[in-house]
Amino acid sequence: PISNLLKEPKEKCPVIAVVGIPKELEKENKDVIYNTLLSQNPYIGECLKNNSSVFDILSVKSLKSNDNVNQAIIKVSDDIRLAIKNHRNKLYFGLVACPIY
Q1: Residues 32-49: pLDDT tens digits?
Q2: 19 forms bridges with which residues in the sheet?
Q3: CA–CA distance from 38 to each of 8, 10, 11, 32, 35 (Å)?
Q4: Nearest CA to 19 among 32, 35, 31, 37?
Q5: C-alpha separations of 7 from 10, 57, 72 in Å
Q6: What's the pTM value of the predicted model, to 2 decimals?
Q7: CA-to-CA separations, 13 to 2, 57, 97, in angstroms, rounded
C-alpha cells in the first residue's frame, strides 16, 4: 500500500570522529573509552539524562597517517553535537584535548 511508502523518515544522528585516543585502547575497550569520555566531559552526561540523547561508539580504529593514535567514530544526537561545538569542538581524554571532525 501507498501508506507504507509515505512514512516519515527516521531522524538521522550526526557521526563524529574523535582523534587522539591512545593506541593502547583498542576496539575491545569501547567501555573504557566511553566511560573516560563521559567522566572528563561532564556536559555529555548532562545531555544523556535526556532520554532522546545518543552517544554510541560505533568503532575504534588507527589513523592512516599515524599508527600510534586511534580515532573513535561516535554516533551522537544533535544536542550532544551542539554541546561539543560549544566546547571548542574538543573532547578531553586523559591529558589530551582530542579534536572532533
Answers
A1: 999 999 999 999 999 999
A2: 71
A3: 32, 26, 24, 10, 5
A4: 37
A5: 9, 28, 33
A6: 0.84
A7: 27, 13, 23
